[in-house]
Specification:
Layout lengths: L1 E5 H6 L1 H9 L3 E6 L2 E6 L4 H11 L8 H7 L10 H8 L4
Parallel strand pairs: 1-2
Antiparallel strand pairs: 2-3
């Protein structure tokens, strides 16, 4: 179960809340009553659990490195991106 804490309270008692997270507790950080972040224990198990719960995958590397390895692609013909590229002289 996640515990909710306001930004000010978190700042004033950061060590105490980090101890709770280290002990396995999830923390929901709120600002003016709205959730702005979640702090979860740093372990692969926590990431795997979240990924399974939301149908996502666990990152295997830095996003910048993964994107750099993707093949370059051009916009499909007939799309706004293709039109803009052509009109700018990008081919």
């Amino acid at each position: 179960m996640a515990v909710s804490v306001g930004v000010r309270e978190l700042r004033q008692n950061l060590s105490r809340y980090l101890d709770r997270v280290k002990a396995g507790e999830d923390l929901i950080v709120t600002e003016h009553g709205h959730e702005v972040a979640r702090i979860v224990p740093s372990s692969t198990d926590a990431y795997a659990e979240l990924a399974a719960r939301f149908g996502a995958s666990v990152p295997i590397g830095r996003l910048q490195d993964i994107v750099a390895e993707l093949p370059a692609r051009s916009a499909p013909a007939g799309t706004t991106d293709a039109f803009l590229s052509e009109s700018r002289g990008e081919r």
